[in-house]
Amino acid sequence: MPLNQRPRPQWLTFDCYGTLIQWDEGLHAAVSRILASNPQERALPTPANFLNIYDQHEHRLERTPPHRNFADIAREALRLTMQELGLTYRPEDANMLIDSISAMPPFPEVVDTLSVLKQAGFRLCIISNTDDQIIAGNVAQLGGHIDRVVTAEQAGAYKPSGKIFAHAYNSLGVTADDVVHICASPHLDHAAARDIGFRCVWIDRGTGRQRLPDYLPDATVPTLDRVPDLFRNAGWL
């Protein structure tokens, strides 16, 4: 459904990693450092191959009860990945990975775009599959434009579960109709949009992530700085 066929939202909610923050780039750099420091004589996997296995473990652990914080999931996913690849796991590798997430910077256009959206009267909230302590370092780089941050740690659930979105909407005092969600992750955020029915703008940064076969986002743009023009066309700016 075209965005302008529904009311102007009060809040814009954002996925953080991959949408606002350079997640793929940061993970690749962190894994490259971990592999370079691993005491192995055997041939090492490429960072891309390593991350493919890591992602599978991470997403499985997020869906497996009981709920655990993201730092613990990242440690366990890293340990299982290294075990599967026959690499030596060291606790300092997990610390390096987790510390690197907090330090990941925003994409170049993000801070200025958030400023434009904030000045247009939207309130801005992040909904993210992470812990409060981890995301604090990323939010600190977003120019002070973010009004609220909702994490999996607060909600006790990870996307695509509707529980984290329900927690966010209750915290904001809104319904799904009062929100447009902006994200880069089809398998997490689009799945939730399909099941819950909130409006969704996909930031398709050309990473190769594929649209779900049974869901079409309300709009698709390649970078965040295209969102203000999208909203102007909808009559919201």
UniProtKB/TrEMBL annotation:
It comes from the Bacteria. Pfam families: Hydrolase. InterPro entries: 2-HAD, HAD-like_sf, HAD-SF_hydro_IA, HAD_sf, S-2-haloacid_dehalogenase. The keyword Transferase does not apply. This is Hydrolase. Keywords: Hydrolase. One of its GO terms (molecular function) is hydrolase activity, acting on acid halide bonds, in C-halide compounds. The keyword Hydrolase applies. It comes from Achromobacter spanius.
